[in-house]
C-alpha cells in the first residue's frame, strides 16, 4: 500500500475522497476493500447496511490487526 498511497496514506485517501466521494471500493491486489471516509457514510454502512455486510469473508489482515476480533 505504501507504493500506491505513499508515506501518508490518510492524505492520499482524503484526496481520493474529494474526487470520488466518501465511499470507495479499492482493489488491493486480489482483495476488494471498501473505504469509508466520513462519519455519516460509516454510520450508514455499519447500521443501515449491516445485514448486507454480515456474511462477508474474513480478511486475514484484519483478523491479525484486530487480534482475532
UniProtKB/TrEMBL annotation:
Protein family according to the UniProt entry: Belongs to the cytochrome P450 family.
UniProt KW keywords: Iron, Metal-binding
InterPro entries named among the record's database cross-references: Cyt_P450, Cyt_P450_sf
Pfam families: p450
Domain of life according to the entry: Eukaryota
GO molecular function: heme binding; iron ion binding; monooxygenase activity; oxidoreductase activity, acting on paired donors, with incorporation or reduction of molecular oxygen
Organism: Eleusine coracana subsp. coracana
Originating gene: gb17278
Name used for this protein in its record: Uncharacterized protein
Amino acid at each position: 500500500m505504501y507504493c500506491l498511497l505513499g508515506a501518508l496514506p490518510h492524505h492520499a485517501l482524503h484526496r481520493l475522497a474529494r474526487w470520488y466521494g466518501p465511499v470507495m471500493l479499492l482493489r488491493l491486489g486480489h482483495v476488494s476493500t471498501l473505504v469509508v471516509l466520513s462519519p455519516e457514510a460509516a454510520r450508514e454502512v455499519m447500521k443501515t447496511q449491516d445485514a448486507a455486510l454480515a456474511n462477508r469473508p474474513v480478511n486475514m489482515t484484519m483478523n491479525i490487526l484486530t487480534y482475532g476480533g
